[in-house]
């Protein structure tokens, strides 16, 4: 089920629900960012963090450049490494013999 009006919210579903006196699920159903857009935005953030790290920047410098907390930089780099590892595993596994 997709949202009636797909877009990125400025408030959390809980905050909007309290503001309008409805259940958070109602907010999610009416207004939600499309999943593909969210995943593309998340990938762009991870890629940017990896790019800056490859340039030799430290976590603190990356955080300042991206205007995010240092912990977020660590999480983004960890996720990128984890995703890259899972992609390598997919490519290196041999098909099962029958």
What is the element layout, followed by pairings?
Elements: H1 13-20, H2 24-30, H3 35-54, H4 59-66, H5 70-92
Helix pairs in contact: 1-2, 3-5, 4-5
CA-based gyration radius: 19 Å
Kindly report how far apart the N and C termini lie. Answer: 39 Å
Helix fraction, binned, reads 55-70%
How would you state the average pLDDT, rounded? 87
The geometry reads as flat
| Structural class label | mainly alpha
What's the β-strand tally?
0
Describe the protein in words:
This protein is mainly α. It has helices at 13-20, 24-30, 35-54, 59-66, 70-92. It is flat and about 50 Å long. The termini are far apart. 8% of the residues are buried. The model has no long low-confidence stretch (mean pLDDT 87).
Top keywords for this entry?
mainly alpha, single chain, 98 residues, 0% strand, flat
Short recap of the structure:
This protein is an all-alpha fold and 98 residues long. It is 67% helix and 0% strand.
